[in-house]
């Protein structure tokens, strides 16, 4: 039954704990089997993805049965509260099956206005980034600290991340390259961990295309809570997926958006 004494953040942390427990026994196992979800291309899914999402869904069915669920691996569950838990059990499965520790568990809670609570959890490192309307913080091996984006960064001084050098369509890749030519440093391949680093004040821009809602809703809530900006490439909402521009502050966002919005 619903436990009215548990806060939304407490529920989100229970979900993240359950996902950690389900996922870690699979990580860096040489015999882990990855199925391809695409007929053309490669979009892997593993037992770890499915087990983690099922574990989180079981908690929500018990503690928040009135809320909807939108997950990566299983069918959506309707709700009656106007709120939706958005779950990506392993964001970065390609990295997961390669043994890199930059994948993460994404948990968001959204309403009609979009996500307002977001968790980016990295089970192997033991880092958890949490964004709420009251602010953002992380808990990791060195303890707890509040998070804040870099407020003074400009485009020329920016650190930029994306997951793949081959970003989306040829036009989207060209737009990304145009931004990349202006910044101080461009790096690749961090999946959701790049958004966490932006919230922590270490990265200034994350630019992506071809996202799903489960990929971006938790990062949106986290980065906004830390003082950053997340939109699509036209300056509109990004929480339904597609193209996303995450920025540390309004000025670096505006400078990158001026380039990307031409696509």
From TrEMBL:
Positions with a binding annotation for Mg(2+) 2: 90
Enzyme Commission number(s) of this protein: 3.1.3.15
Cofactor(s) annotated in UniProt: Mg(2+)
SUPFAM superfamilies per record: Carbohydrate phosphatase
Gene Ontology biological process terms in this record: L-histidine biosynthetic process
Family statement: Belongs to the inositol monophosphatase superfamily.
Protein name: Histidinol-phosphatase
Record lineage: Bacteria, Pseudomonadati, Pseudomonadota, Alphaproteobacteria, Rhodobacterales
């Amino acid at each position: 039954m619903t436990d009215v004494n548990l806060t939304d953040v407490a529920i989100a942390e229970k979900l993240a704990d359950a996902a950690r427990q389900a996922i870690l026994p699979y990580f860096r196992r040489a015999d882990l089997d990855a199925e391809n979800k695409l007929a053309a291309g490669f979009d892997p899914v593993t037992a770890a993805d499915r087990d983690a999402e099922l574990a989180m869904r079981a908690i929500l069915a018990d503690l928040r049965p009135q809320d909807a669920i939108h997950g990566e691996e299983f069918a959506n569950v309707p709700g009656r509260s106007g709120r939706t838990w958005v779950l990506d059990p392993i964001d970065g499965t390609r990295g997961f099956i390669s043994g890199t520790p930059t994948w993460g568990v994404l948990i968001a809670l959204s309403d009609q206005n979009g996500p307002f609570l977001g968790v980016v959890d990295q089970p192997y490192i033991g880092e958890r980034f949490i964004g709420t309307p009251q602010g953002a913080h992380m808990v990791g091996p060195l303890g707890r600290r509040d998070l804040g984006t870099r407020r003074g960064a400009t485009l020329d001084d920016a650190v930029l991340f994306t997951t793949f050098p081959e970003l989306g369509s040829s036009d989207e890749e060209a737009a990304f390259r145009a931004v990349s030519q202006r910044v101080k440093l461009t790096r690749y391949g961090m999946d959701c961990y790049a958004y966490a680093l932006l919230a922590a004040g270490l990265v200034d821009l994350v630019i992506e295309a071809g996202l799903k809602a489960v990929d971006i809703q938790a990062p949106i809530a986290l980065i906004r809570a830390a003082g950053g900006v997340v939109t699509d490439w036209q300056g509109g909402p990004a929480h339904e997926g597609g193209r996303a521009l995450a920025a540390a502050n309004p000025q670096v966002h505006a400078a990158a958006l001026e380039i990307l919005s031409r696509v």
